[in-house]
Every structure is written in structure tokens, then in C-alpha cells.
Amino acid sequence: MNSLFSEFRIKNLSIKNRIVMPPMCMYCAPDSGMATNWHVVHYATRAVGGAGLIIVEATGVSPEGRLTSNDLGIWDDAHIDGLKEIVRAVHENGAKIGIQLNHGGRKCTAEGVEIEAPSPIPYEEGDAVPREMSKEDIADTVQEFKRAAARAEKAGFDLIQIHAAHGYLLNEFLSPLTNHRTDEYGGSPENRVRILGEVLDAVSAVWPAEKPIEVRVTAEDYQEGGNHAEDLGHMLNLVKDKGIDSVNVSTGGLVPVVPKAYPGYQVPSAVTIKEMTGLPVAVGGLLSDARGVETLIAENKADMVYLGRELLRNPYWALYAAKELNVDLEWPKQYERAKPR
């Protein structure tokens, strides 16, 4: 049996294959954070193309949680209807859909907002110095994630992904490179992971128990003194019982260091975290070869694969991968005449 095109279940969520369209910012929302027709077409096209799961781009839980002024938002009830239209279009075309909830922390560049972070450390020399968050700020942010999750449920999403990677706020708390706090949110791994645990508790209180929650983590900081996969595995084990159903393992983004990227370069970190936590993992990183990703699933190195840039280039990657792997995949009826025989 082909592994890449086998069903995968997380809680009540049945995903028809292991192919995931990961969250990738499109930078085309208005300053209000509202979804546009372009978003609907973009995500629905990947559903038509055969991806099993599609995750909407980083969506700000607050105005200062955006990465840019053109990111999607979920900080207001007014955002629900536009997001609901994306969900409807994806479901109608045969895929499941999640949404990535995010706070950009010190990497926020949206205009007119004050940036905040665990510690007053800029991303790069010359960047704005973020305000160090008070305990009240932290509590407010946890509630912003909670309210965002409630809106995601109203919009009909199948999965929530909590973004704790790529140098954004929750990742900044997790890493000793960016978290120099001396209170209960800094210092030890138990303290640095505390805010992620609080966010999980808050989200789980409003998100249906039968629907999965995924956490995205940066498993390698690529700088001395930073986190490695074993550190993330340990911290995830401290909070996984608060509602983590799967982990997307990524690397980099915390500090301005460019990793040596090659196809599958993040797989070793994913294997480590999968073995340490016992949780299902999704992994990406310049993956595009059908036989290569088939092998990752078949060898149990990952449970799902993220095909970001490849699905931007070719929304119908899954249809062609099926042919290469000798899987007789049903094409959309509108396109059946073009199916290679």
C-alpha cells in the first residue's frame, strides 16, 4: 500500500493523504486583516489539486501580533465571515483545513503598533527594541490566543496550529537566546515553556475536544547557546498533555542565521522529536520529490509532509505524484480529460 496517499487520523480528523499545504504568508490582506477573494481562490486551488490538509497562513491574534500590515487577522469577530468563506471553499473541494494562530513578537513590522517580546532584545542590530512584556501583558496575550481559537471554531476550521517557531513571540519565550527573564517565564526549560502551556490550556478551553491542536516549533536555533531538537523534545513533553495532538518540526528563524538548507534537512530534528514525545510529526524543508516523501512516510520518519514552495509552484503536485507512485488517484471530474493515462 502506498504510504503517501494513505489516510491519516488525528482525533476525529480524517485526512485523505499525508500531503499538507503549510502556512505561508501571502502579504495581501488589507490593514484591517480581512480575508480577500484572492485568499479563497489560493487555498481552494490547492484543495482541487489534491492536498489532504491545508493550513492557512500566520493569522494575527492581535494587531501587534501580525508580522506585517498585510497579514490576515483573527483578533475581531468581523474576521470570521471571511475566514469562513475560505473554509467553505476548501471543504467543497475535498480537503481539510487548519489555521495558524500567531503573535509576531519582536519580528512584528506592522505599522502603528508597539512591538513586544519576552526581553528587550532586537532581532538585528538597528531594529526597533521591543518592550519587555509584563506579566499582565503575558496574561492578555494568552487570552488573545483563546479568543482567536473561539473565532476559528466559529469559522469552521478542522485544526488549529499554534505558532511557536521561526522567531515569533512564543518561540522567543522558548529560547534562551531571546528570553533573558528572571521571573517564572524565564531561565529553566520549565519556565520558558510556561507561556506555551498557558496558551494550550486557554485554547483547549474553547476548542472542541474532538478537534486536533498542532504546535509548530523551531527545533534548531543554529547558534551557540540556543535550542536543539532535544531541548524542544523535553519542553514539549512538559506540556503535551495540555492538548498537543501533533507537532510540526521546523528550524531557524529565531536569529538572523541562514541554515545550510537541502531537501530533507529538517528530518533529523523531526525524528528526534517524534521519538522523544511519541507525538505525530509533520516535517518540511525543500521537499518536492514524490519518491523521497513517500519514503519518509513509509519509514515512519514523519506522519505528514509539508510541501510549501512546491505547492506554490504546482498546486496539482499531488495529482502528478500519484502517477509517479503508480497510485490511481481520482482526479477532479472537471479535469478528468487531462489525467495522464
List keywords for this structure.
eight-stranded parallel β-barrel; 11 helices; 12 strands; 341 residues; alpha/beta; TIM Barrel; two-stranded antiparallel ribbon; globular
Mean pLDDT: 97
CATH architectural designation: Alpha-Beta Barrel
What is the radius of gyration? 19 Å
Note the gap between the termini. Answer: 21 Å
Strand content: 5-15%
Q: Low-confidence runs (pLDDT<50, min 5 residues)?
A: none
CATH superfamily: Aldolase class I
> What is the approximate shape?
globular
Number of domains: 1
- Could you spell the SSE succession in H and E letters? EEEHEHEEEHEHHHEHEHEHEHH
- Helical amount among residues, as a percent range? 25-40%
Tally of strands: 12
Biggest sheet character: 8 strands, parallel, barrel
Quaternary structure annotation = single chain
Question: CATH class, please?
Answer: Alpha Beta
Structural class: alpha/beta
Question: How many helix segments?
Answer: 11
What name does CATH use for the topology? TIM Barrel
Compile the SSE list and pairings:
Layout: E1 8-10, E2 13-15, E3 19-21, H1 37-48, E4 53-60, H2 80-92, E5 96-102, E6 116-117, E7 131-132, H3 135-155, E8 159-164, H4 169-174, H5 189-192, H6 194-206, E9 213-218, H7 229-239, E10 246-250, H8 267-277, E11 281-283, H9 290-298, E12 304-306, H10 308-313, H11 317-324
Parallel strand pairs: 3-4, 3-12, 4-5, 5-8, 6-7, 8-9, 9-10, 10-11, 11-12
Antiparallel strand pairs: 1-2
Helix pairs in contact: 1-2, 2-3, 3-6, 7-8
